[in-house]
Design a protein that fits this description.
By secondary structure, this protein is an alpha/beta fold. It has six helices and five strands. The protein has helices spanning about 25-35, 50-65, 85-90, 90-100, 115-125, 140-150, and strands at about 1-5, 45, 65-70, 135-140, 170-174. Helix 2 (about 50-65) links the parallel strand 2 (about 45) and strand 3 (about 65-70). Helix 5 packs across helix 6. The mean pLDDT is about 95.
Length: about 170
């Protein structure tokens, strides 16, 4: 099966710890996603329910006449008290500590990383059993990091060492 992982493009509000805050794409973000998916097609598209993913997934599904599944468990990691804040506001030292050791340095009231991993991998394992030859997952950096960590056998504690750019689309054979 061809598996593609597409991160949403630039959302309204700039670079912040957005989590499940439901911000739409900017015009630039929409164009980034169009550019990343040009000349590609999928028989099944699975998307986060958040508008910055779902709106583009619905557009692509209609354009390609693909099947679409909206998967609640593909929502982004909940960042608790950091939600809606930039690294500058939070403090770069705290952000760096979190990225180096996300288990012991998670933001106050943030979703537990192991629980996040469990919900994402459970949804991923379910969707890859679909009878399809090509699957596109439209999601968030955290969700994609968890899936890539799973595919590459990396410990979840190292997920923030994986860089996921806006609108990046990576292909795998699984």
């Amino acid at each position: 099966m061809k598996l593609s992982l597409l991160r949403h493009g630039e959302p309204v509000g700039g670079r912040i710890y957005r989590g499940d805050q439901d911000d739409p794409l900017t015009d630039k973000g929409w164009q980034q996603m169009l550019d990343s998916t040009k000349d590609q097609s999928w028989s099944l598209i699975a998307s986060s329910p958040l508008v910055r993913c779902q709106t583009f997934a619905k557009y692509l599904q209609t354009k390609q006449q693909s099947q679409l599944e909206i998967i609640n468990d593909f929502k982004e990691l909940g960042f608790g008290d950091w939600q809606g804040l930039s690294a500058t506001v939070i403090g770069q030292d705290l952000v760096d500590s979190f990225k180096q050791n996300p288990i012991d340095n998670r933001p106050p009231n943030a979703e537990n990383l192991y629980e996040f991993q469990k919900r994402v991998i459970s949804a991923f394992n379910s969707v890859i059993t679909s009878n399809t030859d090509s699957l596109l997952i439209v999601a968030h950096a955290g969700v994609i990091r968890v899936i890539k960590s799973h595919l590459l056998n990396l410990p979840i504690e190292k997920m923030f060492t994986i860089e996921i750019m806006n609108a990046s689309c990576e292909n795998f054979e699984i």
